[in-house]
Write a structure and sequence with these properties.
- The complex is a heterodimer.
- By secondary structure, chain A is mainly alpha-helical.
- Chain A is built from nine helices and no strands.
- The longest helix of chain A has 25 residues.
- Chain A is elongated.
- The model of chain A has no long low-confidence stretch (mean pLDDT 88).
- In chain B, helix 1 packs across helix 2.
- Helices cover 71% and strands 0% of the residues of chain B.
- The radius of gyration of chain B is 22 Å and the shape is elongated.
- The chains are: A mainly alpha, B mainly alpha.
- Chains A and B meet through helix 1, helix 2, helix 3, helix 6 and helix 7 of A and helix 1, helix 3 and helix 4 of B.
C-alpha cells in the first residue's frame, strides 16, 4: 500500500469519527440546554452558553476519549465557561443564608394554611415562577450541584468530575442547596405571618 | 432530641437511597407510624419532581439550527 493510500485512509477515518462525534454531541443538546438554563438567570444567557460550549467542543473534539461519558464531557466545558463568565461579571459576594431544616418549607406552608396539608397536592401552592426565582437565589457553588444532580440527573460521581470537586463536597453542597432552595421558596410562596 | 429531628436530618439521604439497609428500614418503619414526618417526606419527593419540571425549558428551534450549523462541513 502506498503512503498516499494510508494517508487517505487516515483522513477518511478521522472525518468519519468527527462526524460521529458531532452528531452524538448534537443529540445531547436538549439535555445540555436544560442544565444551562438552570445555571443562569435568563434564557438568552443559557443560549449563549450552550452555543459557546458547542463551539469549543467541536474545536477540541480530539481531546474527547470515545467510549467515555460525552454528556459529562460537554457539561464540564459548559460549567467552566459559566465560571469564567461569572468571574467577568463580578458577581456580588454571596452571603451565607441562615440554615433552616429540611421541613422548613412544609411547616411554613402548613402554618399559612392554618391546617394540615396532608391530603392536598402541596406543590401546587408553588408557582413555576417561585421555583425559578428561588433557584436563581441559590449561591452559585450550591446551585451548580443542585442543577446537575436534581435537574440534569447526573450521578454524584459525574457531578464531582464535571465540577472537579470531591464527591463528599458534591453531597454536602447538594444537601445545603436543597435546603437553601426551600428557604427561598418559602420566602416567595408563603406570606409573612 | 425528638426522634423526628433525626428523621428530618436523614430525609435527603433516605430519598437519595444512600443510607445503609438498616437505616433505610428504620426510616420506613418510622414513616409508617408518624403523622408528622410522613407527609413531609412525601412533599419532598413531589417537590423534587416539581422543581425538575418547573425549571425545564425547551430549547428554541433557532438555537438548535445554530448548533447544527457549527458542524464541520462535509467535503
Amino acid at each position: 500500500m502506498s503512503e498516499t493510500d494510508t494517508e487517505g485512509r487516515r483522513i477518511a477515518n478521522e472525518a468519519r469519527d468527527r462526524v460521529r462525534f458531532e452528531e452524538e454531541a448534537l443529540g445531547l443538546s436538549d439535555q445540555v440546554f436544560r442544565v444551562a438554563r438552570g445555571l443562569v438567570n435568563s434564557r438568552e444567557e443559557a443560549e449563549d452558553l450552550v452555543q459557546q460550549t458547542y463551539e469549543r467542543a467541536f474545536r477540541s473534539w480530539r481531546s474527547f476519549t470515545p467510549g467515555t461519558n460525552l454528556r459529562a464531557w460537554l457539561l464540564r466545558i459548559l460549567t467552566n465557561l459559566n465560571i469564567d463568565r461569572a468571574r467577568r461579571v463580578q458577581r456580588r459576594p454571596e452571603t451565607q443564608p441562615m440554615e433552616e431544616g429540611d421541613y422548613y418549607l412544609y411547616n411554613r406552608l402548613e402554618e399559612s394554611a392554618g391546617r394540615p396539608l396532608e391530603e392536598e397536592r402541596v406543590v401546587e401552592r408553588l408557582s413555576q415562577d417561585d421555583v425559578v426565582g428561588a433557584l436563581s437565589a441559590v449561591p452559585h457553588d450550591f446551585r451548580d450541584v443542585l442543577v446537575l444532580v436534581d435537574i440534569g440527573d447526573f450521578s454524584y460521581q459525574d457531578a464531582a468530575q464535571i465540577l472537579d470537586i470531591p464527591i463528599g463536597t458534591v453531597m454536602s453542597r447538594l444537601h445545603r442547596a436543597r435546603r437553601v432552595l426551600k428557604q427561598e421558596l418559602a420566602d416567595r410562596a408563603v406570606e409573612a405571618p | 432530641m425528638d426522634p423526628c429531628d433525626h428523621y428530618e436530618e436523614v430525609m435527603q439521604p433516605f430519598l437519595d437511597r444512600s443510607l445503609s439497609v438498616e437505616e433505610q428500614v428504620s426510616v420506613e418503619t418510622h414513616l409508617e407510624s408518624c403523622p408528622w414526618c410522613s407527609p413531609r417526606f412525601r412533599f419532598e419527593q413531589e417537590l423534587r419532581g416539581y422543581v425538575r419540571v418547573a425549571c425545564s425549558e425547551e430549547m428554541s428551534p433557532s438555537l438548535k439550527a445554530k448548533l447544527a450549523a457549527l458542524r464541520t462541513p462535509l467535503l
